[in-house]
Amino acid sequence: MTKPNGQKRHKLSGEILGVLTITFIIALFLFQLLRIAAGAIIDSVLFMQDIVLTEAQYMQADDWVFNLSLLVSVGFFVILFLFLLGERLSYIRDILEGIDALQKGQENHMVPVEGNNELTQLAKAVNYLSKTQREVKKREQALLEEKDQLIRGLSHDIRTPLT
Question: Which of 38, 45, 79, 118 has its CA at a distance of 20 to 30 angstroms from the CA of residue 108?
Answer without folding.
Answer: 118
